[in-house]
Amino acid sequence: MKVWVDKPLCTGCQHCKDVCPVAVFEMKSRKDMAAANSDVAPDANKWTGTSNSAVLQKWKDVQDGHKHFADENDGTSGGISVAVNGEACILCQACLIQCEGECIHIIDDSNTEYKSIYA
Ligand code: SF4
Ligand code: SF4
Q1: Which residue has the CA at smallest separation from atom 8 of ligand 1?
Q2: What residue numbers bound the domain in which 22 lies?
Q3: pTM value?
């Protein structure tokens, strides 16, 4: 399984890390480009330091206990999600329905792609 996050769309909500049963995701600093891009995201989905403007507008003022778009993770939210352990994915799809930014991509061994849809 290949798993990656479309980084400019990631709010830092940490839902993916919290729900994944096999620890695919880790939250990294938005200031550390190498760490933030240490999954298999294609170039178009890499972190360059700028969030998608539509996602930013949608989530920046939402007060739901999450640190949206914060540079660093505080253990509960903030930072940027990186799929550091995509090979472990069991395709339970829990992250796909919990991803605020609708930015998780999973490709299975038969090349079928799954994307997140926030419910
Ligand atoms: S679909 Fe894969 S990456 Fe997502 S929560 Fe389930 S095991 Fe983790
Ligand atoms: S659930 Fe989606 S938006 Fe939230 S931290 Fe994970 S990848 Fe980013």
Answers
A1: 20
A2: 2-115
A3: 0.96
